[in-house]
Amino acid sequence: MCVVTAVAGGERAGCLVGFASQCSIQPPRFAVWLSKANRTYRVARTAQCLTVHLLTRDQRDLAELFGGETGDEVDKFARLDWREGHAGAAVLDGAAAWFVGTVLHRVDGGDHVGHVLDPVQWGGGPGGPLLRLSDAVSIEAGHPVE
Length: 146
Hints:
By secondary structure, the chain is mainly beta. It has three helices and nine strands; from the N terminus they run E-E-E-E-H-E-H-E-E-E-E-H.
């Protein structure tokens, strides 16, 4: 599980993502899939970059915020510390690891759209066991799953 943030058109958004993977070794590439039903997707459609954050199991509160609330109703970023990264990307403070990736391609996969990213900036915070799907399965989605 990871949190993906997007910034475009003066808006910020972020959501909890379960579909994400490295998709190339050389050149390094990573893909994240965003649900067409959520606000993060709407912002990411025109974003130059996305930020992918790995959380530790003790950061379940962040997973609940980004997975259990919708940005259509709540300013998630008002509730936490974050900073600007490459090209104005939103980087959450305290993530176990993070990277900003330039969006190279968008691929319609049905109810989700894949964003292929070229990592351009990265960093990390405190270590620990990473948050897994089994740790987040009880989080009720902030928007209907369609």
